Amino acid sequence: MIDLRSDTVTRPTPAMRKAMYEAEVGDSVYGEDPTVRALEERTAEILGKEAALFMPSGTMSNQVAVRCQTEPGDEIIMDYKTHVHYYEVGAAAALSGVSCRMIHGKRGIFSAAALESAIRPLNIHYPVAKLVCIENTHNKGGGAIWPLTTITAVERLARKHRLRMHMDGARLWHAAVASGHPERDYANHFDTVSVCFSKGLGAPIGSALAGDQDTMLRAERFRKQFGGGMRQAGIVAAGALYALEHQRERLAEDHANARALAEGLASLPGIELDPHLVETNVVNFRVLHRPAPQLYEDLKRQGILVFATSQDTIRAVTHCDVSRHDIETVLSVLARSVT
Ligand code: TLP
Fold first, then answer.
1. How do the domains of the chain map onto residue ranges?
2. How far is the CA of 88 from the centre of ligand 1 (A)?
3. Which residue, of 6, 85, 287, 290, has the fewest CB within 10 Å?
4. 7 CA distance to ligand 1 centroid (A)?
5. Whose CA is nearest to atom 3 of ligand 1?
6. Is 12-246 a CATH 2.30.29.30 domain?
7. Check: CATH 3.90.1150.10 for 250-337?
8. What's the predicted TM-score (pTM) here?
């Protein structure tokens, strides 16, 4: 199978498994797992933050970030297709008791002006806005990278209104490699940043939330409350640490493969997409002449997995287990299947 459903499907390499096998471990809830601590320190260093906390999943990192920066009844503001709201099972409402105020951005990205119109004045009828969330790269936005100038303007406005800033950086590594701006240049603008090790970086499990010491102390309590306090987690942290040190640079290959896929797709008659919009490893395209779920089934029968994201759109994500040869195979199968 060529699996383009997501970059979450990657398998650990033999070298990564060896690092996991050999990991020194301890009870991480007591702060005694040396491998978890090493991963947290390295993550904080890369992001330029005081501290980081290892988490079981990106969803938990995001939701702990929401919980530790809001109180029930508050409001958080983000683009309407942001993972925190769109794909996290209503957790912001269920676990933090907050409502989500939506901005209709472009490919997941919104301007300071759009944020300004979403911020309501203090009034007895309105929830109090506390947090702005942005996602970089933006998953539903087709892997779009937030320009630093836009982030800077959004932050300036958020600070003026005393709002805190969270970045879902599940794929921040991709933004850094593709833009040439190191992760910390983005992270600088945020109080909290979540990152994932189990997507493009190829580790089997894990995420981290980073921020200042005080916020991370609060986050640690909510991680425990949400059931995310892990014990000998060094086994999995070792995979994440290996991924962090060895698999970041190679993301450029995934971006090149995504671009090759996009360019090939754009030349097929039954498909609509603009390859120039493919900046990282996510390729979203429209299927013009058949229902996307039907094309999905057809591809599956031919050994290719994609994600039908609606009746007429498909998402394909490149990652370390997909080669250039696989991309060529996918293009030749699609050329026969799209019409
Ligand atoms: N995204 C998954 C699905 O949930 C859609 C995927 O296949 O892309 N932030 C972003 C931007 C994400 O894309 C994801 C996963 C998460 C957070 C959640 O990470 P996990 O799956 O570790 O909870």
1. 12-246, 250-337
2. 9
3. 290
4. 9
5. 87
6. no
7. yes
8. 0.98
